[in-house]
Every structure is written in structure tokens, then in C-alpha cells.
Amino acid sequence: MKKLLLIVLLLSIGYSQNLIPVIETYYDGNIKSITYHKKTRSGIKKVKEEGYYEDGQKKFEGVIKNGDSTGIWIFWYENGQKSSEVTFKDGKQDGFVCYWYENGMKSYEGTFKDGELLQEKLY
Fold this sequence. Notes:
Structural class: mainly beta
């Protein structure tokens, strides 16, 4: 518990804009996820999420606005290779989407608008 509090304190010192990190850990103490919150006039809102595999390798990261995924979310395989980039707007896929195989070769590209697929290309 003391380690968790120290980590939260150190992270909070390094961030501006009143960001508050909330850290979830695996049973062995390694970080499972970090969720960032921001103080606003109307309360505290979640603004970013990061997830990690048990070995510490990053699993995903993305931004949240008004409770919904927004912008580019990036996902990685456990070996560190990027698995996908997905663009969101108001929680729906909106824009470019790209997926890769675990060996790094591209597998899929698509373009979405308000969650609807406009075009796609398989590799």
C-alpha cells in the first residue's frame, strides 16, 4: 500500500493540469493500468487510460472525452509490436483504422464515419 501511495504521489507531482493518476496493479505489484482524471468545475473526469501486460509492456493507451473514447487509441501485442490504431469520436470509430499481425505485417485498413465502415482494405 505504501508503494502504491508513493507511486501516485510521484506521478502526481510530475503532471500538470491537475491530472490525478489512479493505478491498478497485478497481484505481484506490477502496474496493470493507469487511469488519469482531471479536476474540472463540475467534478472529476476520466481523461486518459493506459493498460499494461504483466511483464510491464504497454498494452494500450487512449484519450477519453465526456466519458467516451476519442482520438487515436493504440494497442500493442505482448511482444511490443503494435497491433492496432483506431480513431474514435464520441465513443464510435470515426476515421482511419489500421491493424497489424503480430509479426509486424499490416493486416487491415479501414475508414469509418460515426461507427459506419466507409471503405476497407485487407492485406
